[in-house]
Design brief:
By secondary structure, the chain is α/β, with parallel strands linked by helices. The protein is globular. Bound molecules: 4'-phosphopantetheine.
Length: about 160
């Protein structure tokens, strides 16, 4: 079985993440969305809230699951016998960051490969950071997060 793990903060999931997940679900037999701690970021939504929003956004995708871990990514992958990491790339900044991360993960476990999917150009300006900002200012979230989660997301922050 061809499995992939899609790791990230997902704080919160965006329409760009969902596009990558949908495309990966057609390439791989199973996609595990894995919420991990980013050492450089403070949380906005709780882990429980992030899981709930991802489940809501991916409920129609049969081969997609959501997990959380407080471990290193490679440790989670080792425990669950998964060798592929999936990342989405919007631009050269993403590439620089993800390339370094892929090399670190490869150094930690040489059996692991990172697979990159290029972001659809229409989602290139979409990021969780902008979503958090829009939510704080009560801006229009329509082109930034899946429609299925907008109401619940607003409710969570009330
Ligand atoms: O969505 P993000 O914030 O860019 O995701 C980054 C994330 C969470 C995937 C990355 O920080 C991560 O892998 N964290 C878990 C700890 C780890 O394995 N770090 C890499 C080697 S030091």
């Amino acid at each position: 079985m061809n499995k992939v793990v899609y790791p990230g903060s997902f704080d919160p999931i965006t329409i760009g993440h969902l596009d990558i997940i949908k495309r990966a679900s057609e390439i791989f037999d199973s996609v595990t969305i894995l919420i991990l701690k980013n050492f450089d970021k403070r949380g906005f939504f709780s882990y429980e809230q992030r899981v709930e929003l991802i489940k809501l956004a991916t409920k129609d995708l049969k081969n997609v699951e959501v997990k959380t871990s407080t471990d290193l990514l490679v440790e989670y992958m080792d425990r669950n016998h998964i060798n592929n990491i999936l990342k989405g790339l919007r631009n050269a900044n993403d590439f620089q960051y993800e390339y370094e991360m892929a090399l670190v993960n490869k150094a930690l476990n040489p059996n692991i490969d990172t697979v990159f999917l290029l972001s659809d150009p229409k989602y290139m300006m979409v990021s969780s950071t902008r979503v958090r900002e829009l939510l704080t200012y009560e801006g229009n979230l329509e082109n930034f997060v899946p429609d299925s989660i907008i109401d619940r997301m607003i409710e969570m922050k009330r």
